[in-house]
Design goal:
About 85% of the residues lie in helices and about 0% in strands. The protein has helices at about 15-105, 105-120, 130-190, 205-210, 215-320, 335-395.
Length: about 400
């Protein structure tokens, strides 16, 4: 079944005119809006270009200021780093001086201990707590005190060295970070709109938008490193002054006590020599007296022996005359003389025997005294060998250096 084709509707002339007019009005309105938009766009372009230029100029200015700040702090940090490096090197030389001084105390201490040990070999009355022993003990105490002081000074120096190196580490780390920051900001400062390699990111990373360090905190961090380095450098300089004073004073103390001990030892040697000479002089006198006493004993013995004959003759005569007949037993002068002779000879012999006994006792006493003096001389010789030969030689070998 066929459909009848409908023709398009037809409009009236007024409708035609009305429609054309409507299109014209609409086009005119669009042109006006477009012109206004173009004008507004020009304003936006000009304002954005000006704002971008101003912001870029401000950013360049800020970057230059930032670079100046970084360079200033790098200069400060470099100066403190150079000062600290120099201070560490100087302190190392002072530490070496302390180590050498401490090492040099070993030999004097060993010598002093050996001298005290050798003097224990004195015998008899020479085992005395004399001035030499007191000075040697004092010298040992001074040396041990110096060793203890130098050990504490060395420990203090090592600790200061650790603090100096710590301060140097933080200065170097701060310098390295500022060098990296300067390189980055310097590169940023030379970038222009025509620079190659520019990149555009729709969204900046969070770390770029919100940093954890404020400008004040940034300066404070470097100021802390600089202040710490200056503080440790001053402390190190004070320690070097102390080390110099300690080294000088300890060396002078050891030299003074060494001179006192050497003087006491020299005086003791001379006193021992004088005592030995006195004892030897007494020994010579004792020996001479012993010889005299021996001659006296011999003389007494000879004299006593010589009285035996006359006494026997007188006693024999008396015995024979007692055999006379009774009428002849007369107490004549001969009888009286013989009786007196016997009595006198007996008395002389008793005195001679008494003198002989006393002389023998005195000879024994002199001999005992001689043995005692010889023992004393032997002891003094032993003391002289210990003090003059061994201890003096050892003590003179002590070398006290200034470091």
């Amino acid at each position: 079944m066929y459909k009848v084709k409908q023709e398009p509707p037809k409009f009236l002339p007024p409708e035609w005119w009305l429609t054309n007019r409507a299109h014209c009005v609409s086009a005119e309105a669009e042109c006006s809006r477009s012109e206004r938009l173009i004008a507004a766009s020009r304003v936006v372009v000009e304002e954005s270009n000006k704002a971008a230029q101003l912001m870029q100029q401000d950013a360049n200015k800020k970057l230059e200021q930032r670079l100046e700040n970084i360079r200033f702090w790098r200069q400060e940090l470099n100066k403190k780093l150079e000062d600290m490096t120099e201070e560490i090197e100087v302190l190392i030389t002072f530490r070496t001086r302390v180590e050498k001084a401490l090492e040099s105390c070993s030999q004097p201490l060993q010598v002093i201990l050996q001298c005290l040990s050798e003097r224990e070999n004195h015998v008899g009355i020479d085992r005395v707590h004399d001035e030499v022993e007191r000075e040697l003990i004092k010298e040992r105490e001074v040396t041990e005190g110096v060793i203890s002081l130098l050990q504490r000074t060395l420990e203090q120096t090592n600790e200061q060295m650790r603090l100096n190196r710590s301060a140097k580490y933080w200065l170097e780390k701060d310098l390295q970070q500022k060098f990296q920051a300067e390189q980055i900001d310097d590169r940023c400062s030379v970038l222009t709109n025509a620079s190659l390699g520019l990149s555009q990111t729709e969204k900046l990373p969070c770390s770029a938008l919100s940093t954890s360090v404020t400008p004040e905190g940034w300066e404070t961090s470097s100021d802390i490193n600089v202040s710490k380095a200056e503080k440790e450098r001053n402390a190190s300089a004070s320690l070097r002054t102390l080390i110099h004073r300690v080294l000088g004073q300890t060396a002078e103390d050891m030299r003074g006590q060494h001179r006192a001990a050497a003087s006491a030892l020299q005086l003791r040697v001379q006193e021992t020599k004088d005592a030995k000479e006195q004892i030897e002089d007494r020994l010579h006198k004792i020996q001479a007296e012993i010889a005299n006493q021996e001659r006296s004993l011999e003389s007494l013995a000879v004299s006593l022996q010589a009285k035996q004959g006359p006494l026997k003759v007188a006693q024999t005569r008396l015995a024979l005359r007692s055999q006379r007949p009774n009428p002849e037993l007369c107490l004549d002068s001969a009888q009286i003389q013989l009786s007196a002779e016997v009595q006198d000879l007996s008395a002389h012999m008793e005195r001679l025997n008494a003198s002989l006994s006393q002389s023998e006792m005195e000879l024994r006493a002199l001999t005992q005294n001689q043995l005692s003096l010889e023992e004393q001389i032997q002891g003094k010789s032993n003391s002289l060998y210990i003090d003059e030969v061994i201890c003096s030689s050892l003590h003179q070998s002590i070398a006290i250096h200034s470091f």
